[in-house]
Each structure stands twice: as structure tokens, then as C-alpha cells.
What does this fold into?
Amino acid sequence: HLLSSGINAEWPLRPGDIYISEVPLSLRDSTSSTITLFSLLPHEQRLSVQHVAQARHPLSTGTVKGKEQLLAQVGFRRYVVKPIFSQHTKSNKHKMERFMPVAGNFVASFYAPITLTESPAVLFKVEEDGSVTLLSTGTLLSCDPDRVVCKRVVLSGHPAKVNKRSAVVRYLFYNREDIAYFKPVQVRTKHGRRGHIKEALGTHGHCKITFDKPIQQSDTVLIPLYKRVFPKWHFEYF
It folds into this structure.
């Protein structure tokens, strides 16, 4: 609380002086003579999705799973978050990483108050004994809820019967409803063949697929799927 008026003659105001009221006695009696003051810009108290560009610290070891509870220090504010990790690329869609990468740059995303200025960002892990371990360092990238992070899942099946460019595939689906839902999706194989689902056969998930070239019996049919993911909602000041 800054005193804007009521300064008596014993405390003359000089350029650059700031007088603070209601200072705790512990701070007044502290041996340190330096006090750091900071303020927030408009809207910096609002929560958003914060993205920080990070690089793993060389002395950091161990595996850090996505959505694991970590301690984030962004600028002068410190809070407990559960981030997700993604690739740091220039595209408009970014693939999610299940674990914190050991090498290279990556992006950690979590819910936190908006920070409008460029700020350093550091991630820590709080151990069971209360100690803090440094995981990664970097800078604030942006506060943007529209940044798309995608999770990649691959469905796989095996040809049961092959007739040149057509094949009956099993283990790709397990009911007719799923086949009808994913029918517009293009499928591919490990050997580079591409095709489309023609129809469902029976009630146990078998389907007929036509490819652009003849397919082999030993090939594997794949359907890559992508789903947008968001950080786990968790935020508290440390």
C-alpha cells in the first residue's frame, strides 16, 4: 500500500522515493536493505493457457511424464501446474510428447495467469522430502489458448484375405459402427500402399479395403488419428 498523502515533515518526499505503509515487522527488521517492488499490467491477473519454450537442463535426470505436477517460475511469479509437452515447430499444429524430451527444445503448456512481457521461465520438480530439483530452463513463448496440440494414435490391422488390390482386414475395428464412422479416413500400410474402406463385413469388425496397388499378405494396415489435447486443469500459487 503506497502512501499518496499524509507524509509529515520528518519524511520529506524526494524524486524516486516510495513510502510503504503496513510493512510487516519481520521485513522491517530484516538485515537486507533491498526490497523488490513489482506490479501487474491490466488483465495479468486473468488465467489463460501459457506456453513456455524449454530446454532440458544438462544435470537433470529421470523421466518426467506429461501432466505430472511441477513447479513453474515465470518472471516473478511461481505456481504449481500440470503441464503437457509438445514439439517446438513453426507449423500451426504441434505433436504432443508423452514425456519431457531429454534433448532439443520443446514447449510446456499449462494454465497460469497471463504474462504480457518477455520473461524467463523455469520448471522444477518438488521431491517427496520437500527439496526442489531443476528440470528445464527457457523463456515465455506466448499466452494463447488457440495453439493446437495434437495427440497421435495409430490403429493397426492385418489382412485376412488378399485379392490383388482388395483385402479383407481384421483387428482394425471390432464393430460395424466404428467402421461406418472411420470410413472417410484414408488408410495406409507399412509398405506404402494407400486405400479406402469400401464396406463392413459381418458384425465382428472385419472390413473390405481397396488399395492403389496390390497388397501383400504380410503387410500391416494403419490408420493414424489425431486428437486435440489440453493441459490438465490445475493451478495454485506456491
Remarks:
- The chain has a mean pLDDT of 87.
